[in-house]
Amino acid sequence: MKQPLLNYVKPLIRLFSIAIIVQVIGLGYVQAENKTGREKSLEEANNTVLKSTNRKILSTPKVTSNIMAFYTNLADVTVAGTVTDESGEPIPGVTISIPETGLGTATDLSGKYSITVPEGSTLIFSFIGFESQRIVVNNQNKIDVTLLEDVSSLEEVVVVGYGSVNRENLTSAVSSLNEKDFVAGTVSPLMAIQGKVPGLSIQSTNGADPNSEISIQLRGVNSVNASQGPLIVIDGVPGGNINSVVKEDIASIEVLRDASGAAIYGTRASGGVILITTKSAKSGELTVSYTGEFFAEGVRRYNKPLGRDRFLEEGLGNDLGHNTDWFDEVTNDVPVSYRNVLSFSGGVENARIRATISNRNATGLAIGTDRNDTQARINTDFIMFDGFLKITNNLSYNKRKSNFSNNDIFRMALQLNPTETPYDASMPHGLNVWTGG
C-alpha cells in the first residue's frame, strides 16, 4: 500500500516544485520590468518638467533634485558666440540663462559670451528693449544670435542732465527734433528748425548779407547787457557756435524752453538751452554721402526810390543830367550761392570713424558782400585692451573768408539824387568818387 501511494505523491511534488520555480522567475521578471518602467517614467517626467517651465510642480524639492540629477548625468558642452542687433551692432549686457537652474552669464562690451551647459539644455537670450529668444543647444559649440527690437516695450526717454524720465512723465518744456524734421533748402542749422519749436523765434539780422548773425529768442529778453538768446551746447560743450556745425552732421536737437535748464548750466541757461548732438561713428562698410545745393536769391518787394522826373518835380535837388536807380546799383542781380558736403563713415568694431568736409560759397544781395566757408569735422571711437579703454574724439575745423558791406547803403539809395551817377569814365577806376555831400 505504501509503495503505490508514494508513486502517486512523487509526481505531485515535482509539479508543485516546478510551479514554485516558475513563480519565483516570473516575480523577478516583473520586479525588473517595474524598475525599468519607473526609471523610464522618471526620465519622461523630467523631460516634461524641462519643457513646461510654467508648471507649479517645479517648486517641489523632489522634482528639483531629480532635474539636477538629470543634468548631472549629461555631458557638459561649452557654447560661445556673439549677440547682435538687426544692424549687426554687438549688444553688451545681454543675459544668457538656463531656465529653472540659476545658471547663466552675460555678454561683454563686444557682445561675446561663453557658457558651459549640459547637452540638450535650452538657452534664453534676453535684453531690455529686445524680444527674448529660446535656443536648444543640441551639442552646438557656437551659437550666434540676432535679437529683434521689441517696439511695444520701448518708451521714449529724455535725459535732462539731472536724471532721465519717460517723456510722458516729463514736466519740463522740451522739444526734440531730428534730421527728418529740418526745413529743406536752409544753410544754418538754426534756420533749419525755424517754426518747428513753439516759442522759438529765429530771424536773420540782415537778409542781404550772408555774413549776418542769426537772432534767437526763446524765453524773451532776459538781460540788458548780456546775451538775450539761449545757451548753445554742442556735444556737451556749452557756449558753442552754431555755425561751426553743418546740418548734415546733426543727429538731434533738444530745446529746453523753461527754467529747468538752469539746474544743469546755471544762470547761462536763463534764456533757454539748445542741445545739439552730432552724428557718431558707426562700424561697418565704408559709406560715402554727398549733398550739393545751389541757391539763387532775389528781392521780392522793396521801397522804390523816386525817379528822375518825380525828384525834379518835387524840387528836391539839382538836375545833374542822369537817371539812376540807386537801389538797383547797391544790389546784386540774382546772386547765386552753392554748398557741397561730403561725409565718410565706417570702420571695424574697435575702431570707427566719421569724417565730414564741406564748402560754402555765398554771394549776398548787397554789393560787396560774400562769404566762403570751409569746415571739417571728425568723430572717432577707439576701443582697446578688450574694452578696458575707450577713446572718443570730436574734432572740428572752420575757416571763413568774408567781405562785408555797410547797411547804410540801402538808406542812402532812398535819399540820393537820382540825377547823379556812380560812374565816371574819366577816372582810372571808372567810379564817380564824391568828396563831400
Whole-number mean pLDDT: 77
**Strands in their spatial order, largest beta sheet:** 10-15-16-13-14
How widely separated are the two ends?
175 Å
Beta-strand level of the residues, as a percent range? 25-35%
Shape category: elongated
Helix share bin = 10-25%
The secondary structure category is alpha+beta
Tally of alpha and pi helices: 6
Biggest sheet character: 5 strands, mixed
Low-confidence stretches: 37-42, 44-65, 67-72
For the CA atoms, what is the radius of gyration? 42 Å
Written description of the protein model:
The chain is an alpha+beta fold and 437 residues long. It is built from 6 helices and 21 strands. Strands 10-15-16-13-14 form a 5-stranded mixed beta sheet, with no helix packed on it. A hairpin with a 2-residue loop joins strand 13 and strand 14. The longest helix is centred in the N-terminal third of the chain and has 50 residues, at 2-51.
